[in-house]
Design a protein that fits this description.
Layout (H helix, E strand, L loop, with lengths): L4 E7 L2 E8 L4 E5 L12 H7 L3 E5 L18 H14 L5 E6 L1 H12 L4 E7 L11 H6 L6 E2 H4 L5 H6 L3 H11 L15 E2 L20 H14 L2 H4 L5 H7 L12 E6 L3 H5 L1 H5 L1 H4 L3 E7 L6 H4 L1 H14 L5
Parallel strand pairs: 3-4, 3-5, 5-6, 6-9, 9-10
Antiparallel strand pairs: 1-2, 2-4, 7-8
C-alpha cells in the first residue's frame, strides 16, 4: 500500500494542509472540533487499501493550514470553497466528501452548495438539519436555563481560550473522555455540555483514564498542534453561526439529494438531541443509502469504532454507481 503523503495546497484561506493516501476516486475527509487530520488516521489506510484516494485535511484555522485573523473568515461558505479548492488542487473535478462533528456540517453544506463538485456525502456523529428556524443566537439564549450551553459559552472571543490554553493537553483529554462511551459521565452526573454559573466546561469533565481509543501518543499529537496554534481560530467556527444562518438563506430547508450515508453513536448527545433530524431523513436526505447508530458508541465514532466505520464507509463507497 502507498504511504501517506503530507502536502500544502492553495486555497482561499491561503494554504490547506492535507494528508493523502491511495489512488482511485477522491474521498475528502473533514474533521471537527477539537481535532485535526489525525482523527482520520484509521480511515486513510483503510480507504486507500479499498481502492480510493483518501485525503484528510486540516480545516482552516487548524494544524498546518492557514489561519486568517478575522472571525468572519471562518463562516461556512468560506470553508466550502476551501474544500472545492482542495479538489481542484489535486487535479480532480469531483469528490465524495465525508465529515465528522463540525466536519459533518461542512461536508453537508459542501454537498448542498456545490453539488457539481461533491457527488456524494457521508456524515458522522452530527445529523444533517437544513437551515431554518430562528437565528441561532436566539436559540442558544434559551437553552440551559440557569446553565450555559457549551456553544453559547464558546461565542465570546477569549473566554473559552482562557479556560483551555493554560493546559491544552489536560483539557483535550477531558473533553475526549467526556464524550467517549467508555469514559463519559453517568446519567447521575452533571451534563458536560453545560457550564454552571461562574464555572467552566472542564469542571464537569471526568477525572478518569483516557478513553480506550486514545493513547498517550495520540493525545500528544493533538495537544502539540493546539499548543502551537492556540485555540481561537478553531473556536471561530462556533462564532459564525449567525453569519452562516444569513449566508445560507438561499438554501433554506433544502434537501441534499446526492447519495448519502449517516453513522452516529447511540450514546452521543448529537444523535439523541437531534433525533428529530434523523427521523426527517426521508425528506432532508432523499438520497440516503443507509443510516447507522452504533450501540455503545460515543461521539468520536471513527476513532472509537474504527473497524466498523471503515467497513460501513467502504461498503457504501463501493456501492455508489460509477460517476455518482
Amino acid at each position: 500500500m502507498s504511504r501517506a503523503i503530507h502536502r500544502l495546497v492553495p486555497s482561499p484561506a491561503g494554504r490547506i494542509h492535507l494528508v493523502e493516501q491511495g489512488e482511485g476516486p477522491l474521498v475528502l475527509l473533514v474533521h471537527g472540533f477539537p481535532e485535526s487530520w489525525y482523527s482520520w488516521r484509521h480511515q486513510l489506510p483503510a480507504l486507500a487499501g479499498a481502492g480510493y484516494r483518501a485525503v484528510a485535511v486540516d480545516v482552516r484555522g487548524y494544524g498546518r493550514s492557514s489561519k486568517p485573523d478575522a472571525v468572519a473568515a471562518y463562516r461556512m461558505l468560506e470553508l466550502v470553497e476551501d474544500n472545492v479548492a482542495v479538489v481542484r488542487a489535486l487535479g480532480e473535478e469531483t469528490a465524495v466528501v465525508v465529515g465528522h462533528d463540525w466536519g459533518s456540517a461542512i461536508a453537508a453544506d459542501s454537498a448542498l452548495v456545490r453539488p457539481d463538485v461533491f457527488t456524494a456525502v457521508a456524515l458522522l456523529s452530527v445529523p444533517y438539519a437544513p437551515r431554518g428556524g430562528p437565528r441561532p443566537s436566539e436559540t442558544l439564549a434559551r437553552m440551559g436555563g440557569d446553565e450555559e450551553f457549551y456553544v453559547g459559552y464558546f461565542q465570546e472571543p477569549g473566554r473559552a481560550e482562557a479556560e483551555i490554553e493554560p493546559d491544552v493537553r489536560g483539557w483535550l483529554a477531558g473533553i475526549y473522555a467526556a464524550l467517549s462511551a467508555d469514559t463519559m459521565p453517568g446519567p447521575d452526573r452533571p451534563d458536560p455540555h453545560f457550564v454552571a454559573p461562574g464555572g467552566t466546561l472542564r469542571d464537569r469533565f471526568p477525572a478518569a483514564p483516557l478513553p480506550s481509543w486514545l493513547s498517550e501518543d495520540d493525545l500528544d499529537v493533538y495537544a502539540a498542534e493546539f499548543e502551537r496554534t492556540g485555540m481561537s481560530t478553531a473556536l471561530h467556527r462556533y462564532r459564525n453561526m449567525d453569519r452562516d444562518w444569513e449566508d445560507l438563506a438561499p438554501w433554506d430547508a433544502a434537501p441534499i439529494v446526492q447519495p448519502s450515508l449517516f453513522i452516529g453513536g447511540a450514546l452521543d448527545a448529537s444523535t439523541t438531541w437531534l433525533s428529530a433530524a434523523i427521523d426527517a431523513y426521508p425528506t432532508t436526505l432523499p438520497g440516503l443509502v443507509s443510516s447507522h447508530l452504533l450501540d455503545g458508541c460515543g461521539h468520536w465514532v471513527q476513532q472509537e469504532r474504527a473497524d466498523e466505520v471503515n467497513r460501513l464507509l467502504t461498503g457504501w463507497l463501493d456501492g455508489l454507481t460509477p460517476g455518482a
